[in-house]
Amino acid sequence: MTSSHRDVSADLDDPAIDPFDVARQAAAVIAERTGAPRHDVALVLGSGWGHAADLIGETLATVDNADVPGFSAAAVEGHSGTMRSVAIGDTGRRALVFGTRTHFYEGRGVRAVVHGVRTAAAAGCSTIVLTNGCGGLNPAWAPGTPVLIRDHINLTAHSPVEGANFVDLTDLYTPRLRDLAREVDHELDEGVYVQFRGPHYETPAEVQMAKVIGGDLVGMSTTLEAIAARQCGLDVLGISLVTNLAAGISDQPLSHAEVLEAGRSAAWRCGRLLAEVVGRL
To answer: What's the domain of life for this entry (predicted)?
Structure first.
């Protein structure tokens, strides 16, 4: 690493370390490695979304996560341990594409989970697109169906917001961006995403609980990142890819292989959706 910035990422959970300082350090390294002083839009690619960014535009630079303060290698099969700087068509704008995320179940703490979001904000992004693979509670959503997130229920019992900072989450998932996504794909439905801690899948009883409290989608990511994005002032678009029917909705057993296969089968639709939405922002 040729950056002269002090690396303060040894332990994001250390209360003596300012996580926003680490994000600024990371953004400086990204700017140096990509040759772009700023990026405009960030995308976090969840399970099943790995190839979607290829349709956004030309990848101008690729950076290994391990070379950037606060980041680590991918811990989940189907995720990429790199971040890419992608040209958004011929607009002159750049997208910062994260090929993986830190999941809460990895045990690295909430600061690590939302570090990518804070880095995106420090890199100049005003919008972030959060994607994931999830279980669907609506039998009409076959595996491979993308669904807009209109709201969420956070069952992790944690928040990335520290101290007496009272962040309004009323319109957390920006309505204007959801409308834009529906202009691109008129068949898009929307629902409420429920985050469990994981890494085990939900039991049928837990899925029914999620349904009773208003959930339509269940998964193990996204809500903490979305809260951090709102704290940073970012507009948020959340899109889930239904990779399987949730436990008890279908009589089939759940597997990560099914998640990856659903992503492969839906790659073109998801890629086109992301490319056109990002191009219109």
So the answer is: Bacteria
